[in-house]
Amino acid sequence: MPKNTKTHILATIGPSSASKEVIEKLIDSGADAFRFNFSHGTHAEHKARYEIVRKLSEEKGRHITLIADMQGPKLRVGEFKEGKVILKERQAFKFDMRSELGDETRVTLPHPEIFAAVKAGDELLLNDGNIRLHVDKADKNNIWTTVVVGGELSSHKGVNLPNITLPISAITPKDEEDLKFALKLGFDWICLSFVQKADDVRMAKKLVGDKAWIISKLEKPNAINELDEIIELSDGIMVARGDLGVECPIQTVPVLQKKIVSACRRKAKPVIIATQMLESMINNPSPTRAEASDVATAVYDGADTVMLSAESAAGKYPVEAVKMMRDIITEVEADPLFYKLMESSRVHPCCVGESDSITFAASDISSVLQKVACIVTYTSSGLTTLLTARERPNLPILAITPDIIVARRLGIVWGAKSYINKASFKSFDKIEEIAIKVAVENGFAKPGEHIIITAGFPLGKKGRTNMLHTVYIPKEK
Q1: Which end of the chain is more exposed for a tag (fewer CB within 10 A), N or C?
Q2: What is the CATH number of the domain that holds 328?
Q3: Which candidate in 5, 7, 35, 49 is catalytic?
């Protein structure tokens, strides 16, 4: 039987899940896609894991999506003489460019771009936001601060600058090398970290071209100021709630999550909810009730994909974490309220083209016509499937494409299941026959039911959907 859940699962591969045996268990447990975190691991390790997933995908007849997540700029303090210091509330503390080891009064900050951007009145956050400093004054070589919230600060801890746009590229020299490697290997998506503005995405697209689709990771609050433009330029979005929750007031993160999911759906771009979804399962075989509710909320919101980070990469229970996520998704999508929410949040096309109109109508027909089993989208570029998924129909979406690259990219798109077929794009007469064959043989439809077909004519022309067709599968005599 096919996997009938619509919300996909993205699992991060790491030391806990690098073997063929564990990766296979993750796939069998419900993982649709894998994230490779280029902040860790060598190219040789990533290549070996990549080849394992591709081989397993072929063996299982699945089009598993592979995402290369770039590290991006890492802003960190320098080293302390004793390895760490204790910062106390209301004490003075200075950052500078000197090479000496730090102490209780100062530390090196090896990032001239921070000195260029910071001004009196700004805030600096250290150690994942646990330490908060107020900037009293700054020049090109020094930043004088007062500790607002103190604590232990050790060498190389991270620095966050809320609402400050830094004069720094989202793509570092390390990222450029990682990007070349990932594109040569054949990753389906590139995940871009440290996106501050739309120009960061433009730069990435110039480097990537059409070799992969780009996910913009929203982890900086200033990116929200250009949200619509960033979504428009990107092929997908990741809500990176960890860093976003450091730089934004934490109570605003759920609101931003819903805002971003809604904006992505409006533009038919897949959206991934990430970070700390089942955090306690790093060390425990089951999550907290709050974590289960968090995953459920993302599903109820209409997210395309939910992601596991350290839970599957470094945790003790990677397979159990995927199974738990699958079980939560299954339970939510079986709730009658789920599709009522999807319908009530549906975006009505306005001043759009024929492709939007066709896929919108297909969803409407599916709710009126009796015994509809699935929607079959014929797609060369993936657009028809993306537009159909935007409507969140209460039906599986079968994406038939002649291109394995497109099939793999669609693995994080809500409701989409991809199948390769080149023959149907050569003859208009075959589209009905092949759509029935794919739907029936894969367990999505049976005789006595209808299927809905959307396609572009002429067949194979990218970026156009202008045909909607309903087909009845006759019962055997």
Answers
A1: C
A2: 3.20.20.60
A3: 35
